[in-house]
Amino acid sequence: MSDAKILIVEDEGIEALDLQHRLTGLGYTAPDIVSTGEEAIKKAEETNPDLVLMDIMLYGEMDGVAAAKKIQARFDIPVVYVTAYADEKTLQRAKITAPYGYLVKPFRERELYITIDMALYKHKMERKLKESEKWFSTTLRSIGDAVIATDKNGLITFMNPVAEQLMGWQLEEVLNKKLTEVLKIINMYSRKPAENPVTRVLLEGFTVGLANHTLLITRHGKEIPIDDSAAPIKDDKDNISLTYMTNSVSLLIQANSFPKSGMIMGIFCPSVSPLRIPFLLKRR
Questions:
Q1: Pick the CATH number of 5-127 from 3.40.30.10, 3.40.47.10, 3.40.50.2300, 3.30.360.10
Q2: Where are the domains of the chain?
Q3: Mean pLDDT, 10 residues at a time, over the chain (284 residues)?
């Protein structure tokens, strides 16, 4: 992306012009130059640059760290710090804003090019990931099936509206709670808790059948008879993948599938779905 549009935020005029000359020589679009944090935010909004090269120490009430924080939050534009200050205190302040690079003056053109190129690539990949996560989340929220996602420790991170209605919980009420605290499964006759299928699927990694006469108990005490089996599929690194589901009411458990989480489960309302899942519970 050598033709990327870059904004220079530098209050030393000669250094700003030198940096602009270097960037133009590297093939980047002739960068705009501003000298204060306030101007940087305004220019970022007006021109929407692909990247901001930000000096930390700026004249005015707003320094580069404060300006970078606002630019990233409001416009999702990557920021690379260019500064003569590399002390620990400065680094810690800069780190909070999660910059895409940190160049200490003086630096060579090769360093400048590599830092910018890596920052642009990283931001591009992160944007694709965010779009993928947004699409996935929107899909889960929109489908007619109920889905609950957890992290690798079994703590709930997501619940779509259908799941909220079916289970009787709001996401805010169960967020970061253990799945086992929300999902209650018992034997129909003994009334004793049934063996947790989540633990077995993730630990043993093979098809697990539920015991006969198993009940799923909702928050409000409604009992739903369920049966069937858990059928995990592993990739070459032994991560649990998905299996096919067409059942009317099912429980989904998956490791390493939902972005940045360890497993995902769902209780599905009556429908035929092409989703592939590792654990199935159906209404008897």
A1: 3.40.50.2300
A2: 5-127, 143-283
A3: 86 93 90 94 96 92 93 95 82 88 92 95 92 80 72 75 82 89 85 76 65 79 67 51 34 41 42 34 45
pTM above 0.85, yes or no: no
Please enumerate in sequence order all residues whose Cβ is within 8 A of that of 208, keeping only pairs 6 or more positions apart, or say none.
197, 200, 201, 229, 230, 279
Provide DSSP, 61-80: SS-HHHHHHHHHHHH---EE
Pairing of strands 5-9, 51-54: parallel
CATH 3.30.1490.20 assigned to domain 143-283? The reply is no
What is the Cα–Cα distance from 47 to 43, expressed in whole angstroms? 6
The neighbour count for residue 134, using CB atoms within 10 Å, is: 11
